[in-house]
């Protein structure tokens, strides 16, 4: 089901045929290492690779493995038997000294490294779209909100500069996760190297572009995969953060921004006027899934002694689904932001919606600068603010009529200028080289 959201590259990475091709990459790299040590006849690895290149492992091969697995009840045994059929007698040099997880874990890590590179590319493209909005609306004044309530003026671009920074941290986490899972393990049963020397492991790791896992038992430790799933969950949560902002800004009472609405699109089967933030709502749900996979990753860390397979069934779903969904979420949010309709006119209207109440802190400070105590100034501004709330009069006018407010009208008016709040915005951008 989730495969429908995958790019062609991601879908291919998690196909059955690709799984067996990656297993073969590991197996042939090990055979080459054995040959270099003089344990396999010269040229055997090259001949095996030539046959494999001439007859790539395809869907028919995957079907044959599935057929054999019905009998063996063991995936690697079925795989090696199918290889013997495909590669001929020299296939006896495949899987020499290895145990199943040497191949499965190393190959899975190789796929995860490749999947993470695809996701990182998707996030970089998304971050580029966020950067565009941050720069385009660098000085577009809007109301900032805390607790969902109007607070003080800010810029629309500053919202996206925050998202730009968060996505930068996500990229760093994805890179660390790629390093965490980018390890090879060929240490044999229970990790003692009894049947396969460390030199084989080192050669395979170098051939595949992976690091050697310094110590293992019979599995690569699953805290590495938990870190990966945690990074994807945090990426999903960043995406949700942006999506949630779009959802709020599209509310009828706000209307400062909204998702694009294509010709012929319908928002409701019953209400023709509806334009709903469906993509952003979808992304909120995807983020929940990604956080769920992170929990699964944590549950997989503790295994019995040197190995059990309680993690296996979880990973067969969680790893393909989480990487596919993370890629999808980044690409879908990019489309949302590319087509986002931004309404500066509504932002200006919302800045004035509370009749100047958003400037209360500025007025408070001006009164203090004028010589009033903080307590007295606070009382004056709060009393006037409550009167403005209840009566709908502009806070500036209420204060002008208050005998306890010592400011002239011109001094009051200057305190209600949104530009004062935005004078340091460029400094925040310079921190990012923007």
Structure description:
The protein has 434 residues and is mainly α. The protein starts with 7 loop residues before the first helix and ends with a helix. It has a two-stranded antiparallel ribbon. A two-stranded parallel sheet has the order 3-4. The protein has three domains: 96 residues, Fumarase C, Chain B, domain 1 (Orthogonal Bundle), CATH 1.10.275.10; 230 residues, Up-down Bundle (Fumarase C, Chain A, domain 2), CATH 1.20.200.10; 59 residues, Orthogonal Bundle (Ribonucleotide Reductase Protein R1, domain 1), CATH 1.10.40. Helix content is 62%, strand content 5%. The protein has 17 helices and six strands.
Task: Explain briefly what this protein structure is.
With 434 residues, the chain is mainly alpha-helical.
Overview features:
single chain; 434 residues; mainly alpha; Fumarase C, Chain B, domain 1; Fumarase C, Chain A, domain 2; Ribonucleotide Reductase Protein R1, domain 1; 3 domains; two-stranded antiparallel ribbon; 6 strands; 62% helix
Count of structural domains? 3
Distance between the termini: 41 Å
**Largest beta sheet: what is the strand line-up?**
1-2
**Run of helices and strands:** HHHHHHEEHEHEHEHHEHHHHHH
* Tally of contiguous helical segments: 17
Which regions contain 5 or more consecutive residues with pLDDT less than 50? none
Question: Describe the biggest sheet?
Answer: 2 strands, antiparallel
Radius of gyration from the CA trace? 30 Å
Tell the overall outline: elongated
Specify the structural class: mainly alpha
Share of residues in helices: 55-70%
CATH names the topology of the largest domain as: Fumarase C, Chain A, domain 2
What integer is the average pLDDT? 94
- Give the C-level CATH assignment of the largest domain: Mainly Alpha
CATH architecture annotation of the largest domain = Up-down Bundle
Tell me what portion of residues adopts beta-strand conformation: under 5%
The count of strands amounts to: 6
The CATH homologous superfamily of the largest domain: Fumarase/aspartase (Central domain)
